[in-house]
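Practice problem 4.
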């Protein structure tokens, strides 16, 4: 019984490692990182613009 379980775990590990080496996974991770950075930078830009607008409005 334990031998069958080891085979199952080994096959699952090989299958997961093979799918992680696919180009689609790298592309997905790269696009996720780019999207996160773009969102963060755009949020910072909007915060600076809002501060500038409120400061200009006070004068």
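Answer key:
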């Amino acid at each position: 019984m334990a031998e069958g379980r080891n085979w199952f775990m080994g096959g699952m590990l090989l299958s997961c490692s093979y799918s992680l080496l696919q180009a689609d996974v790298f592309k997905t991770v790269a696009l996720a990182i780019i999207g996160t950075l773009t969102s963060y930078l755009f949020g910072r830009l909007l915060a600076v613009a809002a501060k500038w607008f409120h400061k200009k409005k006070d004068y």
